[in-house]
Design brief:
heterodimer; A: 477 residues; alpha/beta; Rossmann fold; 2 domains; six-stranded parallel β-sheet; four-stranded mixed β-sheet; 11% strand; elongated; B: 245 residues; four-stranded parallel β-sheet; 13 helices; 14% strand; binds iron/sulfur cluster
Chain lengths: 477, 245
Amino acid sequence: MSETGVHSREIHIRAISALGDAHLQEAYRSSTLRLFTGRVEAASEVPGWELLRDRARAIKHDVIEHLDYYLAQFADNVEGLGGKVHWAANGEEACRLVCDIAGRAGAREVVKAKTMVSEEIELTHALAARGIRSVETDMGEFILQLAGERPGHIVAPAIHKTRHDVSELFTAHLHAERTDDPERLTAVARRALREMFAQAGMGLSGANFAVAETGTVVVIENEGNIRFCTTAPRVQVALVGIEKIIPRFADLGIFLRLLGRSATGQKLTVYTSLLTGPRRPGEDGPEELHVVLVDNGRVATLADPKMREALFCIRCGACLNACPVYRKIGGHAYGWVYSGPIGALVTPEFTGIEQGRELPFASTLCGACREVCPVKINIPDLLLHLRSKAQEMTRAPQPKDSPVSERTAMRLWAWLMKGPRRYALAARLARVGQKVFARQGWVRRFSKFPLSRWTEGRDFPALAPKPFRDRWKELSS
Amino acid sequence: MAAKPPRVALFITCLADQFFPMVGECAVEVLRRLGVEVTFNPAQTCCGQPAFNTGYRQETREVAARVLDLFDDAEFIVAPSGSCATMVRVFYPELFADDPERLKKAESLARRFYEFSEFLVKVLKVEDVGASFRGRVSYHDSCHLLRELGVGEEPRKLIRAVRGVEFVELDDYRLCCGFGGTFSVKFPEVSVAMGEDKLNAAKRAGAEVLVANDSGCLMHLAGLAHRQGLPVRTMHLAELLAKRE
Ligand code: SF4
C-alpha cells in the first residue's frame, strides 16, 4: 500500500533523486507540456476569459469570507433532501466516520472515485485496517494502487507513469499480456474493475463543488467511473473539503467553464454528475447519501487572513503544469499528497509548518503559477508569506558546512547593509580574501555554505577589482 | 523631452556594485548620452531582497527603511534590475503595511522608482539610444520584471533598435532561468537544471549573446556557461546599449 505521513522535509533529497531519473524527467516534461499547451489553447478560445477568472475569484472570496454561513446552508439543504451530513475536524475523524458508515452498510468492498481528500486522510489504510477493501476506479488511481504510490499530480495522478510502466504493472498484478496500446490497457483495467462494481456495497467520491443553495455535490470526470461509483452501490459517501462550497447553482456554469479548460484543456469534462440527495421514488441512485465535510487544517488556514486565499483553489492543477520546479522534481518530491505551487501552500498549512517548512522555499517565485490560476491566487505572494511564517515559527535547517545559522547570517547581513562604511569595508576585505580562490575572474569552489552550494554546479564570479562606488568618483569628475 | 533635463538617482544594486560595476558605468553612459543628469548616493547598499526572499521580514524592514530615507527627494530613481525595482515597488508597500508613515514614503518611492529599460522607453520615450553591435542577440525575461512589473516589450524594442543586431526569440522565453535568489543555493541542483534548459534554448536559437536586465539571472547563467564551457555570452542590457562597435 502507498506511503503514509508527511515527508516534506525530504524535498531536497527527493528532488535530487528525481533529477537523476531520466525516465521520470521525460514523463513529467512531456505530460506537463501537453497539459500546459492544452490550457493555453482552450483559454484563448473563450471570449472574456479574464472576466470569467475575476468573477470566479470574487465568488470564492465571498465564500471563504462567509464560509460558516454557506456551510450551514449547504448542510441544511443536504439534510432536507434526505441525505446525512457528518462533520470531521481531522483526518482520523473523517476516516472513522466513513468506516462506521461502511460497517453499518455491511460493505466489505468500497469502490472509490478519485478524491484528493481521501488521499489526504489516508482513507484506504483506515478501511483496510477494518477489513474493508477499497478499489480505485479512476484509471490513474487504479494504476497507482497497483504500484503502491501516491499521486504525482493532483489532476493526473499517474502523470509519471508511461504506457510501458502501466503495461509492466498490469502484467505483474493482473497477469495481462504486455502491450503499449492505451486502448488495450484501458480494457484490461475495465475488466478488473467491472467485477468490483457489481460487488461493492458502498461507493465513495470526492467533490469538485458543493452548491450551498441546492445541497448538490458536483463531481466531474472523463471515464464514467464516478458515475458508476455514485449510482450503482446502495450507499454513497461524498468526502467534501469545506472550501469546496459555491453559493448558487448559477455559479456552477462559471466554474465548470474554467475548470475543464484549466485542468486538461477540455471545454467540459466528459461527465458532470450532480448528486442532489439520495434516490427518490421512481428514480435510480443510492438509497443512502452521506456527505462528510472535512476540515483537516482548513479552519486553521482560514484563521490566517493572508493564507485564506489558498482556499480559493479549485484543484485544477494548472499551476503544477506551469511550474518549472514541479516539472523538474515531480509530485512525490513534495512529500505529501498535494504537489507543485498549491502543494507548497497547503501542505504547510494543513499538516503544520514544522513538517512543511521547506516547501515554500522550493520555488523561484517566478509567478508562472499565478498567470494560469483560474481563480488568480497570488501564489508567489503567499509563498513569501509562508517563508516568513516558517522563519518565525521554526528554525531553518543548518547545512553541515554552514559556519552559522541562517538567522545569524541574515542578522549579520542586515547589520552590514545598514552601514555603508561597514559594507564597503567588508567588501574590501573580501577582495583581499578572494585572491586565494579566484582565477581569471571566476571562483571554482567555495568550501562553506551558502556559496559551496553555488559552486557545486556553477562557477561564481569574482568581485570586481573596484566596486562601482569607487568608479563613480572617476565617472563624475 | 522636457526642457529641463531629467535627474536620475542611480540605484546601482549591491550585485552590480560589487560584481558588475561595468553595468553601472554603461547605464550612466547611456543615460548621459540621452541628456539625463545622473547622481549617485554612496550611502546606498542593498534593497533588502535577499532577506525578504528568505523570509526574514524584520531584517528586511531595517534595510529597506534606509532606502526610503535615502531617496526621499529624488525625482527619478533608476535601477539596472527588475528584481530590485520589484522589491521597492511591489514589496516595500507590503512590508510597511502596518506602519502608516513609512507606507506613505514607500508608496511615494514606488511611483518614482524605475527599472532601466522601462525608464528609457516609458519615461524618456526613447527606443534607439544610438548603439551598434554586430551579432545574434536574444533576450531572457527575468521573472520579476516580466510578471511583477509587466515589462517585456520595452527591452525588446531597445535591443531591436541597436544597429547591427539580429534579434532572435528563444523557445519558451517566458520560462524562469532557475536563479530565484536564495533558491539558487537552497535547491542548487534544480536551479542548475533549469539554467541548463535556458542555455540549451539559447543554443537552439543560435543566439551568440543572451541579454537580461538582472545581474542575479546573469551571474547564474554566466557561471553555468563558464563551468560547462558553453559558447553563449551573457550581457546586461545596459552593456549592450552602451556599445558602439
Ligand atoms: S492554485 Fe489555482 S492553478 Fe493551482 S490548482 Fe488551485 S486553482 Fe488550479
